[in-house]
Specification:
- This protein is of the alpha+beta class.
- It has helices spanning about 1-20, 55-80, 95-115, and strands at about 35-40, 45-55, 90-95.
- The chain has one domain: GMP Synthetase, Chain A, domain 3.
- The protein has three helices and three strands.
- The longest helix has 25 residues, at about 55-80.
Length: about 120
């Protein structure tokens, strides 16, 4: 069962990225937006979508708002593209792990240069 949910999560991650890049025309969404991870619950009712947005805090907030308002559309598209009996309800969350990694990388580079 666990393998099935992770397979569905991966498939949703791919499709949601595709939809965001190619279908959504919301001006609040920056070009640099990536889907870091998708966690689908065991009962396939909900999917938490972790999203990384490069930009200011305001740009991040706007991007999440844009994604939340498009969640119904994205869910319908997922339903059309992936053959599931029930399409999970999509919840977007901001994920700062990529940004945090870039920051740590910069700190490491600076430390190395100082030596």
């Amino acid at each position: 069962m666990m393998e099935r949910t992770s397979r569905i999560s991966e498939e949703m991650k791919k499709e949601i990225s595709n939809i965001i890049q190619n279908e959504l025309k919301d001006p609040r969404l920056p070009k640099l937006i990536s889907i870091v991870d998708v966690n689908v619950t065991k009962d396939l009712r909900y999917a938490k979508v972790y999203t990384s947005v490069m930009g200011t805090d305001e740009e991040k907030r706007n991007a999440i708002e844009g994604l939340k308002s498009a969640a119904g559309f994205i869910r319908r598209e997922i339903g059309r593209r992936i053959q599931l009996r029930y399409t999970p309800e999509i919840h977007f969350e901001l994920d700062n792990s990529i940004e945090h990694g870039v920051y740590l990388s910069k700190l490491i580079d600076e430390t190395v240069k100082q030596k």
